Amino acid sequence: MGRGIQAGVLRVNQIKLMIQYHLKQATEKDLTVLYEITQKAMSDVETEIHGQKNFTSKQQESHYRKYIEEFKPLLPSTKLIKVKGQSIGRLRVEESEESLFIGGIQLLPEYQRKGIGKDIFTKLILAAKQQSKQVELWVHKVNSKAIKFYTSLDFVIIYETENKYQMAYKSSTLV
Fold first, then answer.
1. Nearest to residue 155, comparing CAs of 131, 142, 171?
2. Strand residues in 6-128 grouped as ranges (E)
3. DSSP character string of 132-154
4. pLDDT tens digits, residue range 60-106?
5. Hey, what's the torsion of the CAs at 141, 144, 145, 149, to 10 degrees?
6. I want to staple 79 with a disulfide (CB 3.0 to 4.6 A). Which of 8, 23, 138, 154 is the partner?
7. Residue 165, phi then psi, degrees to nearest 5
């Protein structure tokens, strides 16, 4: 992923904001916090997909075990996003010869719309441009906030399935 995205100080209209973040490699010890971040950040999308908001404790435990089982192999490509020592988000990026694939970014609701995601994406796009790589991701069709965010960063839909869009950073802007 390169060194260019290890830390960030947000700048909006030349004003330095006080929110500083850094990325930390996720480990097995972080699986529970990664799960909690994902649940809080994606609760609206999960409700839209599954049609219910409140799950029984047995359903929650089953969902947690499934998440841990599926996510453990993805840890090498996952970073925790931290502010003042607190885990406030997660980022998963897989790098190949041709592309940077963003396998997910989630921020706790109170840290959304603060410029952190935009700063991270700007750094990822810059790193990809420097390496002549495409930036790609998948997003649930019901996740309208994320689609709007990606579109604002010049991502376009390149493929779709019944439930998801595959999006890529516009290659015309890679010049």
1. 171
2. 7-12, 15-25, 78-83, 86-95, 99-107
3. T-EEEEEEETT-HHHHHHHHHTT
4. 888 889 999 999 999 999 999 999 999 999 999 999 999 999 999 99
5. 70
6. 23
7. -110, 140
